[in-house]
Design a protein that fits this description.
single chain; alpha/beta; about 120 residues; Aldolase_TIM; FMN binding; oxidoreductase activity; 2 domains
C-alpha cells in the first residue's frame, strides 16, 4: 500500500501503532518497530501515533522510525504539551470517559495549563 501511494505524490502518511501485543494482552506503549516496513516503503513524510510519551516519541524520531509523532490524547489533556516536554513538567491525565460527549466544554477545553511563574 505505501509503495503504491508513492506514485501519487502523497505528501504524508499518518499511521497508528498497534497497542496490542496479542489478542488478549494490552501493550504499555507503542511498538515503534511495527511500522518500520511501511515507513521504509513510503517516500513522503511519515507520521506515527498511538500511545507515545515524550521518550518514545524522541526515540522514534532519533531512530528514523518516523518524521513526526502525533500525541492526540496527550495534546488534548495538555494544551501546552510542547512546553511541558521542554521543561519535563508532569502531564495532566486524560479522561477517556469525557471523550465524545455532548458537553462542549468538559473533556475538551477544561484541562489546566501550567502556571506561569515568570
Amino acid at each position: 500500500m505505501a509503495t503504491a501511494l508513492n506514485k501519487y505524490g502523497i505528501l504524508y502518511l499518518h499511521m497508528v501503532e498497534p497497542k496490542w501485543k496479542n489478542d488478549k494482552e494490552k501493550a504499555e506503549g507503542p511498538d515503534i518497530d511495527s511500522l518500520v516496513p511501511i515507513r521504509k516503503a513510503f517516500n513522503g513524510t511519515f507520521i506515527t501515533a498511538g500511545g507515545y510519551n515524550h521518550e518514545d516519541g524522541n526515540k522514534a524520531i532519533s531512530e528514523n522510525k518516523a518524521d513526526l509523532v502525533a500525541y492526540g490524547r496527550w495534546f488534548l489533556s495538555n494544551p501546552d504539551l510542547p512546553k511541558r516536554f521542554e521543561i519535563d513538567a508532569p502531564l495532566n491525565k486524560y479522561h477517556i470517559e469525557t471523550y465524545y460527549t455532548p458537553d462542549p466544554v468538559i473533556g475538551y477545553i477544561d484541562y489546566p495549563f501550567l502556571e506561569d511563574n515568570s
